[in-house]
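Co-fold these.
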Amino acid sequence: MLGFNIMRKNILFLSIMFCALMINTLQAQTTKIVLKGIVSERATNLIMPGVSISTGKPGKVIAVTNAKGEFSVAVDEGATLTITYTGFNPQIIKLKADQTTLNVLMTESNNQLTEVVVRGYQIRSKETSTGSSFTISGDQVQDVPVSNVEQLLQGKVAGLNIQVNTGAPGFRGSAAIRGLSTLTVTGTGDDSFLQPTSPLYVIDGVPIDADKAAEYGYNTLGPGVSPLSLIPQEDVASLEVLKDAQATSLYGSRGAYGVIIITTKRGNSKIPRVRYTTNFYVNTPPKLRETLGGNSERQSKINHILANAINEDDFDRLTRTFFLADSLNDYYNNSTNWQGIFFQSTYNQTHNLALDGGDTKFNYKTNIGYSSEKGVIKNTGYDRYNMNMNMEYNPTERFRFFAAVNGGVGKQNKGNGSGLLQTGVASNGQASSLLPGPSFFQSSAGTLASLRTLNNNDSRNIRANIDARFQIIPGLWAATSVSYDYTSDNEDTFTPAAAANQFARVYSFNGRSSNLYNRNNLSYSKTLGTDHNIFVNVFNEMSKETGQAGLIEQVKTANDQFQGPLGFDAYFSRGGGVLPNFKNRHLASFAAAFSYDYKKKYIIDLSYRLDGSSLSGLENPYSKNPSIGFRWNFNKEAWFKDQSWLSYSAFRLTWGRNVIPNGNLQSIYGLYNIKGTYNNNPAIGIDYGAVPNPTLKPTTTSQYNLGFDMGFFDSRIELNFDTYFKKVDNLLVDRYLNNTTGFERVLSNDGGIINYGYELAVIFRPLPRSNPFDWSISLNGAINRDVLTKLPAEYNGQYIRRDGSQYIVNRVGKNTFSNFLIINQGVFGTDANVPVDPVTGLKYQTGGRFFQGGDPIFKDVNGDYILDNQDYQITGNSMPLITGGLSTNVNYKGWGLNIYGSFTLLRTILNNALADRFRIMSDPFDMRSVVPLDDLDTWKQPGDNSKYPYAYDYARYGQINPFRYDQTLWAEEGSYFKFNTITLSYRFTKQLAKIVGLNNFRTYISANNLITLSPYSGPNPENVTALGRDASNGYPVPRTYNIGFNVEF
Amino acid sequence: MKFQFDKQMIKALKYKPLILSLVLLSSVAAALTGCKKIFDLPEEKEFLSNKINYGNKVFEPVLGRTSLMGNLNTDNSTVPLKFEIVNARYGDGRPYNDIFQVQKTYVWTAPYDGLETSLAQIEAKRKLEDHPMFEVRSSGQFIMWQSSTNDLIAPRPADSSNLEQDKRLFDLKITNVGGEIILKNFQIRPWRERLYEPSTDINPYTGKTARDPNDPKNPNKRDYITPGFNNVIGVETNRGLVNDATRKDLVVYIRPFTGGTGNSLRFKFLGKDSLPINPVFFNETKWDFIVHGFNKVMTPQYVQYDVAYPIPVINLGTKYAPSGSQARSIFSYSRRGFGGTMTTANIELNYNIFKKGDWEIVFHFRRENPKFQDE
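Predicted complex below.
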């Protein structure tokens, strides 16, 4: 986009010059008329300065529109005019006799081949690039306010799988390009967290690490603000997603998971202008659980107990359970809506002010933004303050200088949760409605912790970069770029005494990280003869990343009023100090790219990059990232010469490799740890958990891509198809050692995954360009299959992660992550349906109890008529098979309507939300609210043929465990189609805007996360962890309604 | 256009490259979709762990009883697993196959619950089926069926030796789709039949009467089955009866009798002179709950029921067999003791009888009869 603007400016400049020279010739001609008119853009109705109007063959520019988009020119009567502007479709208009006014609507050229792409920090024409990438213009991420712009990419790029699985303001969902790239699962059980493999983000030529805030999974320490959440969406000019290895290999190891390039806006107005954007929006919590309130809850529980008690003690226990029995007690005679206490609708706003001006020689831009989002869970929220400035200076054709400073502050309030998870809210939201509502002294500690914890987090980021380039001889450019990125993270939490076992608590975290980055490059482009074009690009990159964080925690402080200063006390201090995420990394890289094309018809790209990283094992510090690509623009062949229906067409074939060093200092050097005390002094010794492995190899991702691009009928139909084969080798896997070694395990490289898939993107514009309606439909979809290819030999092809309540299994030859569950085959209708062991004569049993009517039919896999831990089976696939999106866009005069949706198909979700709903019934004596199960197909009486077992048999629950998590009853199809956003906008005509003294005025209403259609019976098929477990006790994704205004002065 | 093609032909020609390219595209796509082989993906293999094993590989069942043995750890191998006993041989290599003879044996088709009201109801819940006397089922558990007898299977030597050539060894072949594994050297050492429990009066090696453990060399002294009892006072000494290591006042014989229905169980009480004591003296006995039997016949000599064998039929806790594994019969009587207090005496036996037939359980008061009279 950057080059795009430069080109645009250049043409503007040239045409003015040209025009001035031509003026004499024009005057010499006869039968002239004076033609006047305005040129404006069709989609936005905005006037267009600098548009060239030419006539004759070959075309001579006779006029250029002025700053108001007007032109006035003397032309021959009935002349044929060509109106051109870079990036727009040229218009050829034949004047009628005695026509003196001409108003022209220009349409933006949507032809993908005229797009520019970025490869190895160099702007290239898409027509001559071999890699697979997709560009999204900044317009597409404007009209819906979000705290993280990434979520608006969902469903827009085939092969980019984004799941907005948390609604926590300022946090990111998950993003992955082309399937699975890791086997590493951290955390246990329901909190199992798949190591994020987010793409590398390159913002204005500076790479940043989007996963930085997520390196500890759910239990992120510190504010956890993603660097992406600090980019104001209003400042985004374009986003480009690089998918295949040819495109990413020049970014080296960090590009292994794909690259997303964000270009921010540049100044572009001769007259300085001020643009102001504001959004006012409402976030509403999703539908909450329907609970019984007050007496109906009490009656429900009492009936539940009386109907299912087995022995006398169960009845007696009811009388001892005061909150049920003592209905006259004020304390137990309430009807509190606990969910209402935690959830709220919030009113939020954003303001963004952009000032820009300048021309090709010098331009500048300043963007000041403020956005404030209060979370739908009380006591959470995210505020962002931004100031981004850049300027570009081109004193001569041969020298260009660009400088930018971006500052951002993200202030986050996580409440008492960790942000992503709000388990405190989830469990307290389930409290019995009989309990009195919260007040400082009459409430559970958890409630107070959620509502009264003072939490103050902020991330402050400042990023400065300068970029200078100089043309030494024609075609040979030397450039250098330096950037410095500094982030400081702070978190202060104060928990009042009533919320923390009667003693107040303070917690303080501070961290800082910085990245100093330098890149120098030389590029040379040359056309040999007329047909042979070569392009060479050589660059090196250096970066030094440092980071350190520390925390301090003190419990049992004096009182709620006194938050400090606090002294040190060996007993009450919970320690702290420097956290193990200390970082001091060095990366030095050298890269070269060579590109050759013949008549822009046959193109070959070669590139090679050498990455030296201080993170690699000692044995091989350098990783090598080669790539090769071919492209054949076959519409340029002679036999397509007269085929005007074919706008463009190309085959692409690429191969490339990205090598990622994936060790850390511990895996290479081992770890010392505190091992008790010796002579009352802490003793430090070798940690025998893992033996260091200096031969650790880097993970290697090699990828083939075969692509096909076509545009038909003046690009009214455009089609991109890609198929790829991605092989990830040397993945980290723990190997368990024989205990004679003294160590427990060693980190090895014996894992491997293959992803292969197909991606299709189609854009269809049903109406011709001359139609005042501008309508486009775009559809994209990607199928990705992952196959586990390798595990350490001693695993014999299968590894089961036995932790938590739902096991994960990896099996070679199958999809990488499957569930290992007990198979549920329905419900025993009557006692007689329970099978009998022919040998012992005993009924099918578990935990010493026989199954009976109403109990679930768990498949007795091994045939011993006892359900135990031998009866698990592999089932399901937690990774989605198909992802994609659908979007339609209609513009008519000033009106615009955009509807866009995304889908994820064929994935298994374990509906733990439903499991929890049933499990509440396991203990009617518990002070939890009752969620009626009337809407579910449960067993009620002998003979019922139902889906869900009898829910109320609490007395036998402990043994039968009918609602155990590890069963396939919860494994549901997680396909969904989501209407992401609907935006309706109106741009006031120039005249109307003028009346209120504005240059331009546009207003829009939009809604985000509107409806999700899904067969899934849980609350939200997207609010799911990367391993396919329902994360409803995480942060729900709100629905947003917005009204916004764009004003230009 | 120079050529004089008609419009249709021009049209056809015009779109030919389009069609061609679409064909090309679809064939490429088809090649990639259809031919996964070019990806060289590993085949999914069903998992058969090489750590699959049994907790114990030596089985010592008692013949004549249904025993379910073997504690298999499949290490999460993919089911279904197929098990096959192979290479059954003695320690010196001679093959044996006597334990694999097919016999009729009872298998359960419906659950026994202890609430059946007739013998026919119990019998309706099981049926006779042909099974090898020793087999392995799909769970990997070994079964020694009740149909096994001393005659069909040679039990372990009566001299309690365990010579190599007498050891019965076999291997187990385990297969699933993923492969095959052979676990070697299982051993089966059957005990000879003991038709009832407790069997303290039987020598398990020889099947003959067990000798007194306090005087094992004396062929004239024997060991007994002893019931539990309390408050039983001797009629002559007025002192409590005693069973201990040296003195056995009340013993039990479990023995077959003739003249029953083939499903009979009889309870008998003998005095010191081996004359029957009338069961009505046990006035507090709940005769209906003594055993899960039907058609009670009470005579001065005995009480007899029609019962389903074995007793208990399955290992399930019922009111007749609270522990599940053994039936329990309690005989009680009350009398007025010293000072006019009511004392209740109980005689209790927990037992099994494994073979169908006419059995009697005899309580023998060896030294003196119990005192039923009030003080």
